[in-house]
Each structure stands twice: as C-alpha cells, then as structure tokens.
Amino acid sequence: MRCVIARFPFDLTKSGVLDSMKGVKPEEITGESVLIGRRAYPVKQVGQVITRQDRRDFTAGEVLRAMTKLGFTCRGLPPAPAPLHTSDPLQHASALLGAPTGPAPHVRTNVS
User: Fold this and answer.
1) Does the pLDDT at position 6 exceed 80?
2) Which residues are registered as beta bridge partners of 73?
3) Taking Cα atoms as reference points, which of 31, 91, 24 lies closest to residue 63?
4) Fewer CB within 10 Å, N or C, the chain?
C-alpha cells in the first residue's frame, strides 16, 4: 500500500512492517501505540523504524493512518483522570492532603 509520511511516499505492506519490527524492543508507551504481533509499540518508534526518518519529521497521525490501513490495531491516548470537583481551593488542597483524623496533639482546647 502506498502512503505518505513526512511528505515522502512509502510502499508499505503488513508483512514488511512485521519484518522491520522483528527484534525491535518496544520503548515505554506514553501516548498512542500500535500492536504489531504480540507487542505494543509507541507510534513514533514504529514510524522511525519503517521510514528510517527522524521522529521529528513526521506526526503520530500519519503513522496511525498508515498502520490502520494496513490492518494493525492502534490505540489512542489513555483517558485523562477526572478532575476533583471542589468549589473552594482550600477544600481541594485539604482533599489532596487527606482529611484530618482529629485535633493535633499540640492544640489545646478551652473547656470551661
């Protein structure tokens, strides 16, 4: 299949990609990834190996489109955790630090 990555045309096949990635150790995944064989690779690593270009020369989207067209399973960015909903910044900070379990031992209370 002919695809354009970083303004250059490439004739890619699924078996060619599998051969290119054979023996390549996957890097840590922090964003989009592609499943090649039984391993998940970062998209930029796959793009660098199959095009032999610097990772700054192409986008992850270009590689994702090509890998999807070839029939590889692609995974997007993991969902971001839901933000804590607090109306008061002090309550938000207290929630991050944890709720107090009682008065501090050095605090004296007035009992009359």
Assistant:
1) yes
2) 35
3) 31
4) C
Q: pTM of the predicted model, to two decimals?
A: 0.66
Mean pLDDT of the 82-103 span: 70
pLDDT for residue 94: 77
Distance CA 33, CA 30 (A): 8
- Using CA atoms, how far apart are residues 91 and 85, in angstroms rounded to an integer? 10
Q: What is the helix, strand, coil percentage profile of the chain, to 5?
A: 35, 15, 45
Structure tokens at 100: 């107090």
The number of beta carbons lying within 10 Å of the beta carbon of residue 68 is 12
DSSP string, 43-94: HHHHHHHHH---GGGS-HHHHHHHHHHHT-EEE-PPPPPPPP--SSHHHHHH
Query: Residue 20: helix, strand or coil by DSSP?
Result: helix
Tokens 């690593």, residue located: 45
- Residue 88: CB partners within 8 Å, gap ≥ 6? none
